[in-house]
Specification:
The chain is of the alpha+beta class. It contains 4 helices and 6 strands, in the order E-E-E-H-H-E-E-H-H-E. A 6-stranded mixed sheet has the order 3-2-1-4-5-6, covered by helices on one side. A hairpin with a 7-residue loop joins strand 4 (73-81) and strand 5. Helix 2 crosses helix 3 (104-118). It is globular and about 45 Å long. The protein starts with a strand and ends with a strand.
């Protein structure tokens, strides 16, 4: 499974698109400056669980506190599921793509902080899922 995330409006409006072109728009809640233009990440997680089968807001918040505002921000997710039934995720690889004005060391620090400390979605996932990442600068 491959999914791509693109920020379509500042500060936190994102479009998520799968391989077949289906899209979902999400946004931060109003308390973080969201504009109610989509579901929040936790609503998406709850909806996924309810239907039987995300870190970016935290990362941008951390970068903005350092006066860094990416003009390009994209995350590709390559997820692998176990064979059989049930088929939970066993690995997720995230590829963060940003513009050249974003210091890679600061982005990597924001990714780690989000994944390990701030992201409610990441912390809700099974710890057995191997989550890795890489950074690309364009």
């Amino acid at each position: 499974m491959k999914i791509e995330l693109n920020r379509i409006e500042e500060p936190y409006v994102f479009q998520l698109q799968n391989q077949t072109g289906a899209i979902c728009v999400f946004d931060a809640n109003e308390a973080l400056g969201g504009k109610n233009k989509g579901l929040t990440p936790m609503q998406l997680l709850a909806g996924s669980l309810a239907g039987c089968r995300c870190m970016s807001i935290d990362i941008i918040l951390i970068l903005q506190k350092q006066k860094i505002n990416p003009s390009i921000y994209r995350v590709e997710i390559d997820a692998k599921r176990k064979e059989g039934t049930p088929a939970p995720f066993e690995a997720m690889h995230l590829i963060f793509t940003v513009d050249q004005n974003v210091p890679v060391d600061k982005l990597e620090r924001a990714i780690v902080l989000s994944k390990e400390k701030y992201c409610s979605v990441s912390l809700s996932l099974n710890p057995a899922i191997n989550i890795t990442y890489e950074v690309k600068v364009v």
